[in-house]
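Weekly puzzle thread! Below is a chain. First person to post its structure in token form gets bragging rights.
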Amino acid sequence: VVYRKRQPATTAHGVAAGRDRMHADAGLKNPFSVEAGGGNGMLTPGQIAHFGTFGFLVLPQLFSVEETKALREASLRTFQELRGGGPYTGEAEWALPFFERDPLLATLVDDDRIHQIPESLLGPDFFLDGTQGNLRVGDTPWHGATEFTEDVRHIKVTMYLDSATMETGALRVIPGSHRRGSPDHFEVLRP
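Winning reply:
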């Protein structure tokens, strides 16, 4: 899910932070208890600072096991419908838009647990730019975010509906590579 700020942002960190490319990875269960998030459902100042420094957040247990199972089933069902009922071939699949194709998935855009992420990082005046579903098995090459030329902050909220461990293909991030104008950290990793 990509969210965009409605206009260039000037933040407490200055104009440069308002122009950064930023991504947030949302995990699967709910850390927003009174102790973790102050009870308001917003990210903590520490989480926001971590995101600003490293360009990602891991929010484990954002959804219950039951909710995650239902979301996974809805996602797989949506992909099966998109391929006309045929079996999964093992090749990477993606769909854009995605959430709009299933009633359960469509509820995610208004779910407070998701909504509070872009609101905390971009401010209340943000909008949903699009939803995307990805189905992948195996390795994927190193890749960076799409380079946007406009001066509008945006984040990507990603949900992993399968376990992503070191053994099964955990996401790897180059800290700081989210900053606009940073060097191409991926150049040495490309074939």
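Puzzle host: Confirmed. Bonus trivia for everyone else. The longest strand covers residues 154-159.
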